[in-house]
Amino acid sequence: MGIISYLLDTHTFLWSVIESSKLSDAAKNAIGSTNAQLFISSISAFEIANKHRIGKLPGFDDMVINYFDILQSFGVIELPVNMKHAHFAGSFEWFHRDPFDRFLAAQSYIENLVLITNDEVFSSLPWVSTLW
Predict the structure, then answer these.
(1) pLDDT per residue as tens digits for the range 19-41
(2) CA atoms of 15 and 36, how far apart (whole Å)
(3) Is residue 79 within 8 Å of residue 40, measured between CB atoms?
(4) How large is the C-alpha radius of gyration of the chain?
(5) Greatest CA span in the chain, whole angstroms?
(6) DSSP states along 56-113
């Protein structure tokens, strides 16, 4: 079996690090697989820091302070946002307006990554492959 590349939704990454009991069995198996290549978007770093700053992620001080060390120990690969991602995220038709989700959908599609997410809003995008 070959390598499967996954993009972790922000909540998937947070739950993987802090509350793994919230992950589905399929998500746990994919994340823990030796055949998995795990990516996290740079937009997730912004989302975590921003939501923590405005009080939507109380209790995540350690995650924000030690974010880069946690990334390294978790073994994920950073997926920077590039112009193709940004242009596509801003231009495709979708009722969902959350900019973080729009970037993750765009990156998942453009980079051909399976998005590990519990967010059913992505199911309305037939060109985004998801796992939960």
Answers:
(1) 889 999 999 999 999 999 999 99
(2) 18
(3) yes
(4) 14
(5) 43
(6) SSTT-HHHHHTHHHHHHHHT-EEE---HHHHHHHHHS--S---HHHHHHHHHHHHTT-
DSSP category for residue 53:
H
Q: What's the start-to-end Cα distance of the chain, in Å? A: 20
Q: SS3 breakdown of the chain: % helix, strand, coil, rounded to 5?
A: 55, 15, 30
- Whole-number Cα distances in Å, 73 to 19, 80, 98, 122: 16, 19, 29, 28
State the total domains in the chain: 1
* Cβ atoms of 6 and 131 closer than 8 Å: yes
What CATH number has the domain bearing residue 109? 3.40.50.1010
Range of the domain at 56: 4-131
Backbone angles phi, psi at 53, to 5 degrees: -60, -40
Q: Quick check: 41 and 3 in contact, CB under 8 A?
A: no
pLDDT tens figures, 97-108: 889 999 999 999
Q: What is the pTM of this model?
A: 0.94
